[in-house]
Design goal:
Blueprint lengths: L33 H31 L7 E3 L6 E3 L20
Antiparallel strand pairs: 1-2
């Protein structure tokens, strides 16, 4: 009796998947190297962090703008903030107030 095993059909090993990140043949069952998966997930996370950093910077800029008070007004000519009782601006703009109607 013979103890030799028959040769395998085909090339002897199943076709392996290629890693979608690096293009090499993957040794994991998922078809992507764990290192490549880490790099891909980190790049996505960094994009989200950059977006949140930009949003935080915009919020900071908005909060640093001076808030108009109840008794402030802005000169339409030069943009200077003035008290609401001021009738003229240093740039020469005159604020006119309609005369009150006497009934």
């Amino acid at each position: 009796m013979s103890t030799k095993k028959p040769p395998p059909l085909g090339n002897g090993s199943p076709a392996r998947k290629r890693c979608p990140v690096c293009g090499e043949i993957s040794y994991s069952q998922a078809g992507i190297h764990p290192q490549c998966n880490q790099v891909r997930s980190e790049s996505e996370r960094l994009k989200r962090v950059e977006k949140s950093a930009v949003a935080a910077q915009l919020i900071e800029e908005l909060t640093q703008r001076p808030v108009m008070g109840r008794w402030d007004k802005t000169c339409p000519r030069c943009g200077t903030r003035l008290h609401s009782r001021k009738k003229t601006c240093e740039c020469g703009h005159v604020f006119h107030r309609p005369a009150p109607e006497h009934a």
